[in-house]
Amino acid sequence: xxxxxxTARGRVVLADDDVLLREGLASLCERLGYEVAxxxxxAERLLELVHTERPDxxxxxxxxxxxxxxxxLKAARTIRERHPGTGILVLSAYVEVEEALELLxxxxxxxxxxxxxxxxxxxxxxxxxxIHKGGSVVDPSLVHQLFSAQRRDDPLSVLSARxxxxxxxxxxxxxxxxxxxxxxxxxxxxxxxxxSILGKLRLPGAADDHRRVLAVLTxxxxx
Length: 223
Description:
By secondary structure, this protein is an alpha/beta fold. The chain has helices at 3-6, 19-31, 43-53, 71-82, 97-104, 115-118, 121-132, 140-148, 161-171, 176-183, 187-200, 208-221; strands spanning 10-15, 34-40, 57-61, 87-92, 110-114, 136-138. Strand 4, helix 5 (97-104) and strand 5 form a beta-alpha-beta unit.
């Protein structure tokens, strides 16, 4: 693979205090055609790298030194404020609902994946590319946990079972064609479901892409 192919997908920086995992991610990103512009073992170094390298993507562990609490999440918020054009993929060993919701409220070019998902190379490629192109990614395990939870005043109660399935897949960041393949339906049928969802949730008039984001946020908040 020549240099032009290696940098075709974009430039990334990686932050994780687990050196073996970090090196493994770096190797995987390079094999996928991303240029690894730098690696960090803590949030402070990550912020320095993003400032100097201006990468397309930052892949960040949610828990890093010194306290291993939410340093990665805080760094992700800082990156979003200072460098809004940088896509962010936060990795976590476990489903951490509150942290994930706080992160995903940031809108486009953002993602949350469990570390176990990285071993599914096709899923990891799709996640990186989707974020790089301006989309968002939500780990299916988080979607399942939120979808299974109940709330007394559920704004999704107006939706049919199939519409809830479509909305859950929308929350994972899937396109209409991707949803159709998952549910064994046509893209036209999915489009009808999406229009019905947007109408039933009474979202304000705006571009369909914006209304889809609002629908997903409604879903994520209705846990």
